[in-house]
Amino acid sequence: MDETIPPTSLWHRLSSSGRILWKEVGAFGLIGVLGLAIDLGIFGWLAPHGALKAKCISTLVAMVFSYLGNRYFSFSHRARSSIARETSFFFLINLIVLVVSELIIALFVYPLHYSHGSGVVFWVNFLTIGLGTIFRFWSYKRFVFLHPDKVHDPVESIDLDAELSE
After folding, report:
1. How far is 77 from 95, CA to CA, in rounded Å?
2. In terms of Cα–Cα distance, which of 7, 155, 146, 163 is closest to 78?
């Protein structure tokens, strides 16, 4: 008896996975565009008073919006692990992105002497958001909003090699 997977089952699995991925990418993109508008709007408004403070405030507001949007829209079909685990990973990932963004903006403001409210600093902020978005999408799927098969009770039991190989 041939126990191989019939091609229709393989095709169904691939197309189903593709639809889920496109749903996640599309919803993540929508939440991202709204979060970007929040981040850039607050940053543009506050940057003349200090680009680093403006970046911190704008990121924190956009981060809260993004968490709620991604949890309840982009990745709503994914399993929930504990809320403490999920939020701590989410905010840790965003803190890493914030620190990198702050360092890059500080490079342009202090050693390169661009004014806090300059167009150059605004575009540097925009580019750091873009780079951070790529890292966040990958990180959210791997560490925050887990696939239902990957949910583990204790955080210590997560096999990072298995998570990263997905």
Report:
1. 25
2. 146
